[in-house]
Amino acid sequence: SITGETVELLEPYLDMEDYNLETAKKVCGNVAGLCSWTQAMVYFYGINKEVLPLKANLALQEGRLAAAQTELNNAQVQLDEKQMELDQVQAMYDTAMKEKQALLDDAEACRRKMNNATALIEGLGGEKLRWTASSKNFQNQIINLVGNVLLATGFLSYSGPFNQEYRNLLLQLWKKEMDNSKIPYSNDLNLTGMLVDNATVCEWNLQGLPNDDLSIQNGIIVTKASRYPLLIDPQGQGKIWIKNKEKNNGLQVNS
């Protein structure tokens, strides 16, 4: 090795113009190599003087790098652990959100069912009143059925030959007798509505039967009575109606 002191001692010689390999070979060829060696050692010392701090700094920085790398590795391990925990928590959160959404969907479906049930109950509440009134009306109809049938039977059997005014008089007389006999009947009884429906009346009108009460009552007597009726028909309206009504039943007319 070479020291700084030695380099200082060699500097005067190194600065000489004739201190070189060619001159040394001429003066003493056997030791000329020492000249080149001393120059190389001085040059090495100069370079090494600059390199040593760099090498020391490099070692220091490598130590710091190793420490930082260790810290980085530890931090990466912690990061991986926290990431695993985060993934687990995220999975739990996703599961909880799915359960929450399912509960919300169930609650909404239940709410719709409750609204439908409420509407149905409210609707049935109104129907209850109607059914109660209808039940009471049916009960009254059952009570008055015998008297109503008796009036309808008397109408079909005995009112045929008379006009509208006398038919009404007969009904009043029959009702008076039934009151005396305590036979119940409907005060608002409509014999026409009881014995024929509106659709049939409309069909009769299309077939030529007039739409007044007397004509409709005559139509009822013709179609409901058990005996063959005798029609006194100066205007021919009854004849036209019967022809149209029975034309599909093989009616034969003898003039």
Written account of the structure:
The chain is mainly α. It starts with a helix and ends in a 9-residue tail after the last helix.
List keywords for this structure.
78% helix, 255 residues, mainly alpha, 8 helices
Topology:
Layout: H1 4-14, H2 21-27, H3 32-158, H4 164-180, H5 191-195, H6 198-206, H7 213-224, H8 237-246
Helix pairs in contact: 1-3, 2-3, 3-4
Short description:
By secondary structure, the protein is mainly alpha-helical.
Q: State Rg.
A: 65 Å
Strand content: under 5%
Computed structural class: mainly alpha
Outline the low-pLDDT stretches: none
In round numbers, the mean pLDDT is 85
Helix fraction, binned, reads over 70%
For the termini, the CA-CA separation is 165 Å
- Secondary-structure element order, as H and E? HHHHHHHH
Largest sheet, if any? none
Number of strands: 0
In DSSP terms, counting alpha (H) and pi (I) runs of 4 or more, how many helices? 8
Characterize the overall form: rod-shaped
